[in-house]
Structures are given as C-alpha cells and as structure tokens.
C-alpha cells in the first residue's frame, strides 16, 4: 500500500492530478483509515481551487492521525483560501507545534497574521521563515508584505527584490513590488514591475487592478480604465474594484454605464463587501447611511483598531493639540486654516503639527511652520511610530485633517495617538472608525437628525465648521480677456473638480445657458479627455461646446483675481463646493446651492448661512434652477446679493478670531470626557 501511495504522491508532484486522484481514491477504498491518502486528497482539492472540499478531507485525515504536520499546514492554506484567517492561523500553529523548523508554515503563518492585522507578529513569523529558508522566494515575498503593512516600504521593496532575484518568475512578488513602488510614487518602475507580473500571469486580476492605478498616476487614463475593465472581467468581486472604476469614469466625465456600475457598488456595500473607497462614495448618489457603512467596512478591512489603549488623560497647564496632515503646503486645507493655527490662544493651548506630506519650502509652508509651536516631520515614520511620538509628547487631542482623502494615514489614529481623537475639516463625512471619538461639524452640515449616520460623537461649532484666512489676497484686477473669458455675457461658474460633476447638473446648467442668451459656463480645466467628454455632453444637450470655457489651474492669488469675473457660482449636488465656495464668497461672488442630505452636499449651505446669505440656499433642483435664472436675468436681484456680500468681513464666516475661540471651546469640551 505504501508503494502505491508513493506512486500517487509522485504523480501529484508531477502535476498529473487526475491520475493521482484515482490512485489516492483506490488507496482509501482499500484502506479507509489511510490518513496520508485522505490528507493528500484534501491537498489535491486545494490545488484545484476547492478549499471547502480540501478542509473536509483533511479533517477526516486529522481525526485519524492528528500528528500530521503537513496536513495541518495544508488545512491552514485551505482555510486561508476560504477567507478564514483566524482558523488558518490556528492550523499553522498546530503544524509548527509538530514541526517547528518548517519554513513554509512560518511563512504562511505570517500571511494569516497580516490579514488579522497583527503586523508585528506577522513580520516576526516571516523573518523566521527567511532564516530557516533563505533561498525561498515565497518567504521573502511574505516578509516584504509584512514590512509594507508596517509602513516600512523601502525595506519591503528590498525584500521583494530578493524574492524576484531568487525566482524571476514569481508573479505575486512582482505585483506586490509594483504596489510598493506605487506607494513611493516611483511610477515608471511600478509599471515595469506590474507588466512583468502580467506577462507571467495574464489572468492575475489583482495585478490588472494595480496596473490601472499606476496608469492613472501616469495620466494614461484610457489605458487605466481598460486595465480596470480587465480586472472586472477576471474577478468581478475584487475589493474596491467597482468603486475605483466608477470614480475614474466620474473624474473623466465618462458617464456611460455609471448608473449600473453604481448599483453594483451600492449592492456590494449593502452586502458588507469592500466595494468602494469611502472618499469616492461621497460623489456618488449614496445616502449618509450607506456612507457610514462603506466607511466601517473600509476601516475594518484596511485600518482596524489595533487594540492599543487610549493614553491616560494628562494634566497640563495648556491643552496640547496635535494637527495631523499631509497638506501643510500649498493646498486648500492650508489656505483655509493658516490663520487659525496662528490665532490659537497660547496661554491655554500648545499647538503641534505632525506633517506626513511633502516638505516643500515655499511661502505657505514657511508661514505654517512659524504658526505652530512645534512642527514634526513624520513622513518617513510608520504609523505606529508617529502615534508613539504623539503619546510621548502627551498630546491631549489628536486632530485628523485628512480623513480618507489622498495621502491620509488613518493607521496613526488606529494606534491611539492621543486620549481624544477628532476628525476635522479635511473629510466631509463619518470615518466609521471606533478610534475617532469626535467629528467637528456645525448645525447645517450635520443637523441632529443626521447623527445616526456618524460613528463619532458630534461636536458643533455655532457657525460654519470651516475656518478662513483673512490674510489671503483678494487678488489684483485682471481683464476678462486675461481671465480667458469673452468680452461680454453672463458668467455661470463652477470650479469644482470634475468628479463632482454629474449628468443631472449639466442638464440643468444647459437649460440655464439656453435661457440666458450669450452666457457661458466657466469650468476648471481638467484632463483633456474629461474636457472633451464635457463638450460632447453639452452638445448632446443642445449647447454649443464653445460656451464651455475652461480655466487653467493657477496659484491662489491669480485664481482669486480672475474669479471676480464670475457672476454666479453654481454648486454641484452630491459633493458640493467647499474651499471653492469660500473663495467665491471671499471675492464677492454669490453661490447658489441645493442643500442635500449628506455632509459633503451641505457645506456651501453652511458657508452661505455664515456669510448672511441664507436666501441662496435651496432644497430642490427646481428651486436652485429658478434662483440661478433669477440672478442671471434680473440685475437688481444680483446687485442686492452682491451688496450684502460687501459686508462679508463682519460675518462669522470671515471672523477668524471668533472662529478660533469657538473651536477652542469645542476642544475644551472634549477634554473632560475621555473616550476609551
């Protein structure tokens, strides 16, 4: 019988699975308690992509002989394939108890620990594997994965290099290396690495997804979308794929098929799947309840709580506030908040910046550095180390200015940087994270009736949640021609990013253009493909594409100078104007908005309330259209609104000292209640 088993095993190793299966079956028929044959039938099922059958057969083998280390290892692999990492880990541990020098078990144990977000243990396990088997490409690949998860990206790339040097045909290592290079903004190298992975494994769906993301960063948008479509054909349920595809189409104003794709996103989230990044969902027709569910899924999948206890509340003469951001440079957040940082009451507060973005040396950066008591450069530090630094500095309140926007690092807060942690300014929605204690809002963007859609405790400022900088320029006078506008005609303006534009909004705006002779729609210049799509969509709505005027991106002073030539700013609906609306009001241009049911759709309403223009806030698209038309066709109505805006500096929106005191009162209210 053992000779027959050896023959079956040889066939199995040679990849002759049908012959091996027949011989294993004959052995079990003759000897039903042949544990090795039962275990290998299970392994064969795993090799054929049937992990549930694999577990069933291996369990039969282990009931007979629980001392089979290889069976416990293969059981762990099958459970991992079923998405059950905790059970897989237990099986790997049983295998290692029997065979502690098995590098393969240590290596696979590392992967299970990584999926359970036990990253330090994952790395230790992978390191053990590479010590036991220094020539194993799998072990080096898994070690690199653990390093990448800990934010030690350069070390991860070196480990991936070791893996592919040992086995140039290791497609997963090439793909993982590409992801690491992408995170380091080394896009050409990342593309070469992912192309190598796909040359080795053309049906590697996750690699197609990564390739799409790399091509997007290289501004090769048509190819990017094609790669996403390839991934969708190969693996329709791939995490975040549907949302990523839809968001790119929205950025490109490619609206074909977006309703059906959104229904897939919505259904995925409702089923508890990671179907969309939370930031991308803000621009989709999602309810606040769905936004919360999406955020909770994302946090559980990508940035779960680490279990680190909140630091004990400190007793300081001054409350120590830590602002965490990647945007302490020429960025909308910096433009809004620079004066706030300067105006904090230093008798009561000590202000720290934790910067994990680019270290530019421009005037904005210099002003920001001078505006903080302490400025910490932490871009090169892993999340856990940044949190540990904040704890050593005894930060009382850690303020996340990023949320889930580009370059955000929620993992810092997952490690509990401070006794109290708050989401503020950068992200217009809930983070769905158990470690974010507060969201700073106002009565308009987050009324009491909406609190059920937020995982955080809500703390409201009395006026708008958004700060403003009184020191910023209102710009120099430029001509319409210098601004790129025709010499005459009413100027409807929307400088929101293209992903905020929707077919419904453009249809409404087209009706306004049709009713206001000689008017133009002034938009922010985007990618060439997006502008071409918008021109085509305008023509389909009966509008001469020449009436769409695209403004190139300019520095803040030049932007504010030209913006004064807008007659009315038209807000978008799902994800409205935020900084762009403040800019318009700052230079005296009215904004028409339609208040929605989510934070992101209510910001302009909050700004208008705080600047004394609640009459520009509507609640239906019909009322929005009627108001915009009235302002465009009745000069007296527009003049009255503009006259009110001449007194904007006395309104709460632009009273930054008052804003600073209101925010400090909110911070003081957070301190007595330490949230575990």
Descriptive notes:
Helix content is 53%, strand content 8%. The protein is built from 30 helices and 13 strands. Among the domains are: 319-470 and 659-670, 3-Layer(aba) Sandwich (Rossmann fold); 491-654, Rossmann fold (3-Layer(aba) Sandwich), CATH 3.40.50.2000. Helix 23 (503-515) links the parallel strand 8 (491-494) and strand 9. Helix 3 packs antiparallel against helix 4 and helix 3 (35-47) packs parallel to helix 5 (69-81). The chain is an alpha/beta fold and 676 residues long. The chain has a seven-stranded parallel β-sheet with strand order 3-2-1-4-5-6-7, covered by helices on one side. Strands 10-9-8-11-12-13 form a six-stranded parallel β-sheet, sandwiched between helices.
Which key features would you list for this structure?
alpha/beta; Rossmann fold; 6-stranded parallel β-sheet
Q: Would you identify the CATH architecture of the domain at 319-470 and 659-670?
A: 3-Layer(aba) Sandwich
Which runs of at least 5 residues are low in confidence (pLDDT < 50)? Answer: none
The helix fraction, in percent, is 40-55%
Largest sheet: 7 strands, parallel
**SS element count, helices:** 30
Strand content: 5-15%
Give the CATH topology of the domain at 319-470 and 659-670: Rossmann fold
Question: CATH top level of the domain at 319-470 and 659-670?
Answer: Alpha Beta
So what's the overall shape? globular
Arithmetic mean of pLDDT? 94
Number of separate strands:
13
Radius of gyration: 29 Å
The SS-based structural class is: alpha/beta
Q: Strand sequence of the main sheet, in spatial order?
A: 3-2-1-4-5-6-7
Distance between the termini: 62 Å
């Amino acid at each position: 019988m053992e000779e027959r088993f050896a023959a079956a095993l040889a066939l199995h190793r040679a990849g002759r699975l049908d012959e091996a299966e027949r011989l294993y079956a004959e052995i079990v028929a003759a000897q039903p308690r042949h544990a090795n044959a039962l275990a290998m039938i299970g392994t064969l099922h795993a090799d054929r992509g049937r992990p549930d059958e694999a577990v069933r057969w291996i369990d039969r083998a282990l009931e007979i002989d629980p001392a089979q280390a290889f069976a416990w290892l293969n059981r762990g692999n099958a459970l991992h394939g079923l998405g059950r990492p905790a059970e897989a880990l237990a099986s790997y541990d049983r295998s290692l108890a029997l065979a502690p020098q098995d590098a393969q078990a240590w290596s696979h144990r590392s992967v299970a620990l990584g999926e359970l977000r036990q990253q330090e243990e994952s790395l230790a396990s992978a390191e053990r594997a590479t010590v036991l088997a220094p020539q194993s490409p799998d072990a080096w690949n898994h070690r690199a994965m653990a390093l990448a998860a800990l934010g030690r990206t350069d070390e991860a790339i070196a480990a991936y290099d070791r893996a592919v040097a040992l086995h140039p045909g290791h497609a997963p290592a090439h793909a993982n290396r590409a992801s690491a290079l992408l995170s380091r903004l080394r896009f050409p190298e990342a593309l070469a690495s992912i192309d190598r992975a796909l040359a080795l494994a053309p049906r590697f769906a996750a690699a197609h997804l990564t390739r799409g993301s790399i091509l997007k960063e290289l501004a090769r948008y048509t190819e990017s979308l094609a790669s996403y479509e390839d991934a969708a054909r190969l693996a329709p349920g791939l995490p975040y794929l549907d949302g990523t595809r839809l968001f790119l189409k929205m950025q490109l104003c490619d609206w074909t098929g977006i309703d059906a794709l959104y229904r897939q996103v919505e259904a995925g989230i409702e089923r508890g799947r990671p179907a969309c990044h939370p930031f991308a969902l803000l621009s989709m027709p999602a309810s606040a309840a769905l936004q919360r569910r999406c955020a909770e899924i994302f946090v559980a999948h990508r940035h779960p709580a680490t279990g680190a206890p909140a630091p004990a509340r400190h007793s300081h003469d001054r409350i120590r506030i830590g602002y965490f951001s990647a945007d302490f440079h020429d960025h909308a957040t910096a433009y809004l908040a620079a004066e706030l940082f300067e105006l904090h009451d230093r008798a009561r507060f000590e202000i720290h910046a934790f910067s994990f973005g680019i270290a530019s040396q421009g005037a904005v950066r210099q002003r920001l550095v001078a505006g903080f008591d302490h400025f910490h450069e932490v871009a090169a530090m892993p999340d856990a180390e940044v949190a540990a630094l904040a704890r050593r500095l005894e930060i009382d309140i850690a303020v996340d200015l990023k949320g889930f926007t580009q370059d955000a690092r929620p993992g810092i807060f997952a490690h509990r940087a401070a006794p109290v942690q708050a989401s503020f300014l950068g992200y217009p929605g809930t983070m769905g994270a158990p470690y974010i204690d507060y969201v700073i809002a106002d009565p308009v963007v987050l009324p009491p009736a909406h609190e059920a859609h937020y995982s955080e405790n809500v703390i409201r400022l009395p006026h708008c949640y958004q700060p403003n900088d009184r020191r910023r320029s209102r710009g120099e006078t430029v001509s319409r021609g210098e601004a790129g506008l025709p010499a005459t005609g009413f100027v409807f303006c929307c400088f929101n990013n293209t992903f905020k534009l929707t077919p419904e909004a453009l249809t409404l705006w087209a009706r306004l253009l049709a009713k206001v002779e000689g008017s133009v729609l002034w938009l922010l210049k985007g990618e060439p493909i997006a502008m071409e799509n918008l021109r085509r969509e305008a023509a389909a709505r009966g509008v001469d594409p020449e009436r769409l005027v695209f403004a190139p991106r300019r520095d803040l002073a030049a932007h504010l100078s030209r913006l004064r030539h807008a007659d009315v700013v038209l807000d978008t609906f799902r994800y409205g104007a935020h900084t762009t609306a403040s800019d318009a009001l700052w230079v005296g241009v009215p904004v028409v908005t339609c208040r929605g049911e989510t934070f992101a759709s209510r910001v302009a309403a909050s700004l208008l309330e705080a600047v004394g223009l609640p009459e520009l806030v509507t609640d239906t698209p019909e009322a929005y259209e009627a108001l915009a038309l009235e302002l465009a066709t009745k000069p007296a109505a527009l003049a009255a609104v503009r006259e009110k805006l001449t007194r904007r500096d006395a309104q709460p929106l632009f009273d930054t000292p008052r804003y600073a005191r209101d925010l400090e009162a909110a911070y003081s209210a957070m301190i007595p209640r330490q949230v575990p």
